[in-house]
Write a structure and sequence with these properties.
19 strands; 7 helices; 6-stranded mixed sheet; alpha+beta; single chain; disordered N terminus; Mannose-Binding Protein A, Chain A; globular
Length: 342
């Protein structure tokens, strides 16, 4: 099931560092719109988080498990399913905790009001899964997501709290869900922003007048939104300096990552890399003793796997292609794939 966003109105152009959206006023079918975007831009618009939703406002695949928290990958081996679960993986569904803190997938209870846990670990007043997600995003961070957060919950909850869970709320929603939707560019972003009052029984997604998502027939003629990617993965193994010269000669520069949204956009591309790490534009200066971006951006946002230790001369920053996509300090002469900005 492919994913496109439609919106009505005048031509809209939104630019950001990693990518930009272009609103196209021509009326086309979904297939025609996809062909147009791929020919003239990069692809139909991909939405990864609430920041993108705000910017948008001014082929059917097997269901996949996703964490509600954007940028957090679901790792099958870390799942803590109850015995016999998941047992309903062919339907769109959500996950709740049992009293022993194991996971159960379900379709029926997703639309019913159940207690839920936000990222701060507190039980909340019953809501259905979609409204629980919205509540947590508006008032906290998101629904509790990731094995690390759930393990922490297990450690901090007392036996009294577990008893309370068992006696008053046998089903407690967490931020794990499965669906059949996929983005046109085949990225695996888990962010969803469905309008709870809208239909979801058609094959293509559209924007409602509230800036949320509904569905429509793919054969309808609608305006559409493309995006133009400003980041490219070069699948050639080069030293950091060779990568720098390549990007500056063929594109713009080695990529700069200044916030979590940009981190998510770049790390999605690492799944296509052919090396265990991918060079970025992060560099250490021995003369001044600090890390900097070659684009002259100050290093405010950081995603290091571990703090620096000892002599960091002749070191540059690379992102791991697996795991949590943390940054690692690597010697300049090592050879990896690299990211260029355009």
């Amino acid at each position: 099931m492919l994913f496109v966003l439609f919106v009505s109105g005048q031509l809209c152009f939104i630019k950001c560092y990693m990518y930009e959206y272009k609103y196209i006023e021509y009326l086309m079918t979904w297939t025609e719109a996809q062909e147009y975007c791929r020919k003239n831009h990069t692809d139909l618009a991909t939405v990864t988080n609430m920041t993108d939703v705000k910017k948008l406002k001014t082929a059917k695949q097997r269901p996949k498990w996703h964490w509600s928290l954007p940028g957090l990958s679901f790792i099958k081996e870390e799942a803590y399913w109850s015995y016999g679960e998941p047992n309903n993986h062919q339907s769109e569904l959500c996950v709740y905790l049992r009293e022993n803190l194991t996971w159960v997938d379900d379709y029926q209870y997703c639309t019913m009001d159940q207690r839920f846990i936000c990222y701060n670990g507190e039980l909340k007043t019953p809501l259905n899964w979609t409204n629980a997600q919205r509540y947590c995003r508006e008032n906290h961070t998101d629904l509790i997501s990731g094995r690390q957060q759930l393990d922490q919950l297990n450690k901090t909850w007392t036996d009294n709290m577990k008893g309370k869970l068992s006696n008053t709320a046998t089903r407690v929603f967490i931020g794990l869900f499965s669906d059949m939707w996929a983005w046109s560019n085949e990225s695996s972003f888990s962010f969803r922003y469905w309008d709870p009052q809208s239909d979801r029984d058609k094959s293509c997604a559209v924007l409602t007048n509230k800036g949320m998502w509904s569905t429509d027939d793919c054969s309808e003629n609608r305006p559409f939104i493309c995006y133009k990617d400003h980041v490219i993965l070069i699948k050639e193994n080069r030293t950091w300096e060779e990568a720098l010269y390549y990007c500056r000669h063929h594109h713009h520069d080695l990529v700069t990552i200044t916030n979590m949204d940009e981190q998510r956009w770049v790390q999605e591309k690492t799944k296509n890399a052919s090396s265990p790490f991918v060079w970025t534009g992060l560099r250490y200066t021995c003369t001044l003793g600090f890390w900097f971006w070659v684009s002259d951006e100050v290093v405010h946002y950081k995603n290091w796997a571990s703090p620096g230790q000892g002599n960091e001369c002749d070191m540059s920053g690379a992102m791991e292609t697996g795991g949590e996509h943390k940054w690692f300090k690597k010697h300049d002469e090592e050879k990896f794939n690299f990211f260029c900005s355009k």
